[in-house]
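Exercise (ungraded).
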Amino acid sequence: MKIYLFEISKTDLAGRIGTIDTNHGKIETPAYVPVIHPVKQTIPSKKIKEIGFDLVITNAYITRNNYGDKAVKKGIHKIIDYDRGIMTDSGGYQVLEYGDVPVAPTEMAEFEQGIMTDFAIPLDKPTGFGLPIKKAEAYVKHTLKVCKQTIEDSKDNGQIWIGPIQGGEHFDLVAKSTKGLIKMGYKMLALGSPVEFMESYEYRLLAQMIIAAKKQIPHNIPLHLFGAGHPLTIPFAVALGCDTFDSASYMLYAKQNRYITEDGTRDLSDIVVFPCNCEICTKYTPDELRQLESIEKINQIAIHNLHAIKLEVDKVKQAIHEGRLWEYVIKKARAHPKLFEMVEVMTENSEFLKIGTPKFKERAIFLFDKEDQFRPEVQVFHEIVRGFKSKKEKILITNESSTKPGYLSHQFVNLSKKLKDFEEVQICQYNPQLGLIPIEISDIFPAAHHETSRMNFDPKEFTEFEKTWKIFFENNKFSEIRYNKDDEFLKYFVKTLPKNIKKKSFL
Amino acid sequence: MKIYLFEISKTDLAGRIGTIDTNHGKIETPAYVPVIHPVKQTIPSKKIKEIGFDLVITNAYITRNNYGDKAVKKGIHKIIDYDRGIMTDSGGYQVLEYGDVPVAPTEMAEFEQGIMTDFAIPLDKPTGFGLPIKKAEAYVKHTLKVCKQTIEDSKDNGQIWIGPIQGGEHFDLVAKSTKGLIKMGYKMLALGSPVEFMESYEYRLLAQMIIAAKKQIPHNIPLHLFGAGHPLTIPFAVALGCDTFDSASYMLYAKQNRYITEDGTRDLSDIVVFPCNCEICTKYTPDELRQLESIEKINQIAIHNLHAIKLEVDKVKQAIHEGRLWEYVIKKARAHPKLFEMVEVMTENSEFLKIGTPKFKERAIFLFDKEDQFRPEVQVFHEIVRGFKSKKEKILITNESSTKPGYLSHQFVNLSKKLKDFEEVQICQYNPQLGLIPIEISDIFPAAHHETSRMNFDPKEFTEFEKTWKIFFENNKFSEIRYNKDDEFLKYFVKTLPKNIKKKSFL
């Protein structure tokens, strides 16, 4: 009996590198799960495996309609000719598109067990987007009922049943739906249906939906995100805690001559130079690709699209390994103005993102602009400083030294020699994002492990600096502060100090 | 006789797509120019051509030392086995490294003519970085003297002589040096020596040096940038008007097991998942590459590095074709905190960047944050509005409609029906970056062609909005303004209006 279904080896923000153990080998996450059509697939599954995908998703409902009972004899792995992990959707997508399907959930579940899919999904009733709350509530209730029946009927045969979370933009329902599935014993969950959020560029809603679900999910349960496999959304989906995500876009786009790039989708006719290194883009010039005959052209664009998505996942994985997922997603947000709104979601959910962010990192973190004050690592440092108590009555604040930690800097050593009352003075350095850095703890991560832009920052934008400043001066009893009066950034905060603190110039 | 040496087909910011006509075919710019060692090269020049480079640079001084007069008989194309464009450095790099070389500039020039290089560089005396102004001045003077002699002695044989600009961080000298070379008749220039700027992450100084030179250079003269061929610097170099740039980093880094990525250089030992699609990264896993024997490993990393640099150039080219170079470089700035300081260089040089930015673009531009108010296209629109005169005495300001141009929106059509005094009211929409948009000109680019983030912007950061607002109300004689009093952004500016303008609420 497998004890650990999902093993996590590395985390950053709410993202993680993990492995899911299946009847067909271990699947490394985060993973993009390409959609394979059980009948009309034109890119061979062998090619898909070769590009580097170890898990695909296909449709059990269509399989059942086309192969009937023969499918159970053959098994889904032979039908789609793929020997690694297979996930099957049960017809929920068809329900969302056409309203209903003429098959009972129990029959569907029995069929999915029969074809020995690795990841099976009960026949749910997706809420989609834009449903009134009453109707959405009824759909969630129906789905939960089906899920309960399905998991009770399921055999312990190494298959993983995935509980489908519904609720759409009704986040209370999303939370309720999630809790219900966990209680039933689902070891993996899937969140529907973000496609409509994405089509209307409502990335913020999508993020809020993911967070509403994730807040209810224990760490050892992987989360799948339905239909969200575009380079634009993958980094955020992973950063917010999604482990796998499927999409048919590589093929749907290819049929419309649409070429996936890291920053969005382009019409093939708009491409002058391929911004890509993949096998297709090095084999053809854009003109040559445009001139291929239709089916060949579609397949070649689809293969490029698969490479583009795979590359995005690999970049995100490498960013997790490097502890740079925050930097990566904040940069990625500049792919589209509506995606940029995700920066606000990230800064507003610092507490949530803190859980998976390591307390210490090997590498220096990069601090660019105001949003980085909300980086989990930076927030943790603010908390430490907010609890710092000094025994001194005087404080001297300088800007950061380039040598870190600050107590090893020339700047500090010179102070210790020059200041006659050095022993009586609390020395602090400061950084706009990190706030006050008491010299005694200037070696704590990330005080000694960061790079910051030398920009003209507006102190009013640095609300975390202001909070820490306030608490720090309340916690301590300074009667004198020394600082450089030409420092416009610091001046703004010094002004807020009570009058009984003597302000002295120091250069 | 060739009349046009340099043909420009597309521009954006100060960047351009062009072709330089040489004795060995047309070279498309912007182009990265890989350094080929005339003796010790381990990546065959054939492979370099196959990766997609049509122009390489090699060292005439080393060639002369190793081949002597035989080099003239064979010609440089046979020596390095490359049949496309070849540029030769003349030993200036050695002068910078070792102080001097034992060869006279006239001999060097004669040699470069003899080996029939396509782009020849006179034997200059590079200033580098950190020279006192007197010394830098002497170097510039010496270089100008050599350049004058060289071009006077040169034959009209289809070779292109490149004038080396010196001056380093002394921008007046850079400008003087540039003017001198242009006066002598140089048809192509090269700017040295940014390597030291880059080693100390002084990207801002590098940018200022480029701008100091570019401001003196007519458009039809291409500019080469010495030693700056890293994905971090390429987008900015191109955006500021550099057309070609060489570097040996692909090989120098490879020798230290350093792997080039779009966001910087990584030690191969730190790579878990290759964030790249190139032939090397799809052939090996990181572990397999690490285990290759030394020379093979160096060559494979070098080939990856060449692909990574080539990809960056292709992405920049495609961004120029799409009119998205501004978006591309502002995003790229987030690769490193010191590179992020380039955002300030971009916003401070709006006038300079305006020259090459098309007045109209086919695609919508993306507006993300405060820096986009300084985008050339946005600046041009502000200028138009600053000259706008209304005959009306009342003004009504609403936020932007999602339908564009504004006069086609429901919002506007409803206003025209509802407002009893519609004919007497100047209708404006607004956008934080674009400022006021009088409805009559809401179809002008980019008023009708942009996407903006829906963020909580701080009005104080929008100084261009403030300027336009001030001028607009000075130019016109409004006695009444109607606006939504819940609109915090607009409220900030309404407060600045004189008391004799009646403020009325409008929803």
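Further reading is listed at the end of the chapter. For now, observe: Chain A has two domains: 6-348, 365-505. Chain A has a mean pLDDT of 95.
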